[in-house]
Each structure stands twice: as C-alpha cells, then as structure tokens.
C-alpha cells in the first residue's frame, strides 16, 4: 500500500515523506471531508504545522481539494486527473446541518466540457441541507 501512495505522490511531483504518506493514506480511507483539527486529532502526536503544510502542498499539487464552510476549511482527496493548474472536482460539496458532515456529491456536477475562450481552473459548488441518512432518521 505504501508503494502505491509513494507512486501517486511522485506522479504529482510531490516528495513522498513519511507524514505525506500517512496523511494521504488516512484521507483515502475517509468518506467525508475533514478539517485540519479532525485530521490532527487522528495524528495526535504529530505537529499541527507539519499537517497543515502537508495539506497545503497537497492542495497546490492537485492531490486534495479544499471546501470552505463558513470559517472552516475541510479537505478531501481529488480525482486522479487534478493537477497543479486545474482542480477538476467540479461537483457539489454538501454540508449536513444535522450530522455536520461534508460529503462530495459527484452525481451533481458542473459540466467540464463547456466550450469557452477562457480557462476555468476551479469551480466551487456548495450546498447546505440534510443528508440522506439524517433525513431518513427524521421520518
């Protein structure tokens, strides 16, 4: 598994340090977007600054995309076709007001094949509401 992650990081022009491998591995096992604090809680003995720098490097290299929720930034792994110039995560980011989780709704997306005479580097689609699980529990 580590070799696979190392190869992914190298493909994104990112040196595969121990912390970067650990953070990538952790994020790849998550179904929801996570804040710096949530990631830091998982790595209780790691330096917060190191984790933050890892996430910023990942964002710059097209490895993660950030989702801004009010005053909190959350992170989720990108699709493989994102790169340093263009994040292609053109899908809806959905925040549930009940369970407080942010998920990527890839079935709701901005079309990426629009013909323009300009380059779109990033699209941010964000919605708040009640997720499927919480809505089911309300009934």
UniProtKB/TrEMBL annotation:
Please report a single Pfam family linked to this protein.
FUR
**UniProt entry keywords in alphabetical sequence:** Metal-binding, Zinc
> Quick check: keyword Metal-binding in the entry?
yes
The scientific name of the source species is Chryseobacterium piperi
Please name the GO terms that the record assigns under molecular function: DNA-binding transcription factor activity; transcription cis-regulatory region binding; zinc ion binding
Q: Cite the binding residues for Zn(2+).
A: 96, 99, 131, 134
Q: Per the UniProt entry, what are the Gene Ontology biological process annotations, in alphabetical order?
A: negative regulation of DNA-templated transcription; regulation of secondary metabolite biosynthetic process
Give the required cofactors: Zn(2+)
Q: How is the cofactor bound?
A: Binds 1 zinc ion per subunit.
Q: What is this protein called?
A: Transcriptional regulator
Q: What is the lineage of its organism?
A: Bacteria, Pseudomonadati, Bacteroidota, Flavobacteriia, Flavobacteriales
């Amino acid at each position: 598994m580590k070799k696979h992650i190392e190869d992914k990081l190298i493909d994104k022009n990112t040196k595969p340090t121990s912390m970067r491998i650990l953070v990538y591995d952790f994020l790849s096992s998550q179904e929801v977007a996570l804040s710096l604090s949530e990631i830091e809680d998982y790595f209780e003995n790691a330096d917060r600054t190191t984790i933050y720098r890892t996430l910023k490097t990942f964002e710059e290299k097209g490895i993660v995309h950030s989702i801004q929720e009010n005053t909190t930034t959350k992170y989720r792994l990108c699709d493989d076709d994102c790169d340093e110039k263009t994040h292609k995560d053109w899908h809806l980011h959905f925040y549930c007001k009940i369970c407080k989780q942010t998920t990527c709704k890839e079935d709701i997306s901005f079309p990426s094949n629009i013909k323009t005479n300009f380059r779109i580097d990033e699209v941010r689609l964000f919605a708040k509401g009640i997720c499927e699980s919480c809505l089911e529990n309300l009934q």
